[in-house]
Write a structure and sequence with these properties.
With about 100 residues, this protein is of the alpha+beta class. It has one domain: Alpha-Beta Plaits, CATH 3.30.70.100. The protein is built from three helices and four strands. It has a four-stranded antiparallel sheet with strand order 2-3-1-4, with helices on one face. Strand 2 and strand 3 form a beta hairpin. Helix 1 runs antiparallel to helix 3.
Amino acid sequence: MTVAVLATLRADARHAAGLRDALLRLADAARDEPGTELFVVHESAEHAGHFVVFERYRDDAAVAAHRGSPAMADFRTALRVAGTTPTVVFLTPLAGVGL
């Protein structure tokens, strides 16, 4: 069953660039993860350092593989440095366009 994830996080001004770079590295690594169908990083146009990530995985095993990846471990380090934690919501897709 397809699993979607919506993650939001905020970094203060002095950590925004580092967290942005870490998110971009994580997105790059996600391209090579089997079962990762979508991984899109957004940054608020109005509030620098406010990020929203939309993810979609083939199944729970793909989510587990992503969460256990070396890239995710590196991202967790960046979160600790920035002193922030994401808010993560797991979703079941019902309908949409362009999926």
